[in-house]
Amino acid sequence: MAVGMAESMTLHVGIGINFFPPFLLVVIKFLEVYERSFCRTIETLVDIFQEYPDEVEYIFKPSCVPLMRCAGCCGDEGLECVPVDVYNVTMEIMRIKPHQSQHIAHMSFLQHSKCDCRPKKDVKNKQEKKSKRGKGKGQKRKRKKGRYKPPRFHCEPCSERRKHLFVQDPQTCKCSCKFTDSRCKSRQLELNERTCRCEKPRR
Predict the structure, then answer these.
(1) If pLDDT is split at 50, 70 and 90, which confidence band does 185 have?
(2) What's the mean per-residue pLDDT of the chain?
(3) What tens digit of pLDDT does each residue of 125-163 get?
(4) Helices (H), the chain
(5) How many Å separate Cα 72 from the centre of its chain?
(6) Parts of the chain belonging to CATH 2.10.90.10
């Protein structure tokens, strides 16, 4: 009876060990994690429309391309990973104009070859403003008469990536699409009012 129980326990233990995949037991060491996450060039899939925002009338295949780009962490929160050396690479992409034509086109893309951790733009600007204020201390400010400038109203951009697709009223800051629905329909496309792009109709 005792032998039978021992065999049963051995069987259950054996099943338990085999149930867990071997990779779950592997722990990646700190130095390897640190080196692999630090600022460096790494292959990144980039949306073609991000590189060619003006070519909204085309459909690209593939829609994204693998490019070497800077990515990763820096040792200080005030620093960011940026490219310091770049070069262009040419790729063959299928360029499709819906219901009209399609052809293989040579398209140029920017690749990063070297990266470095540099001060972030907002941090750099704050430091420059502080230095300018420091230089002006102790000096008398001369008031210029008859040169009153009305305050300028600053509108937030309609879109960070595709500003050219929008028209903005400087008085009201209201955004509207540059392209009209009729223009999109002339290309057998539909106007997406959220992105202001002519897109293929959804079926």
Answers:
(1) confident
(2) 78
(3) 666 666 666 555 555 454 554 554 544 556 777 776 666
(4) 2-19, 30-37, 48-51, 121-135, 181-186
(5) 13
(6) 29-123
E strands in 48-186: 59-61, 64-71, 79-97, 101-119, 166-168, 175-177
Token pair, residue 203, equals 């079926």
Cα dihedral 104, 49, 86, 91, rounded to 10, equals -10
Per the structure block, which two tokens stand in for 75? 């040792």
**CATH architecture classification, 29-123:** Ribbon (2.10)
Cα end-to-end span (Å), the chain: 69
- Taking phi over 0 as left and psi of -120 to 50 as alpha, with beta for the rest, 60 belongs to beta
Amino acid at 194: R
Whether the pTM exceeds 0.70: the reply is no
pLDDT of residue 157: 75
Confidence of residue 97 (pLDDT cuts 50, 70, 90): very high
| CATH fold label, 158-203 | 2.10.160
Task: Report d(CA 9, CA 15) in Å as an integer.
Answer: 10
- In the chain, list all ranges with CATH 2.10.160.10: 158-203
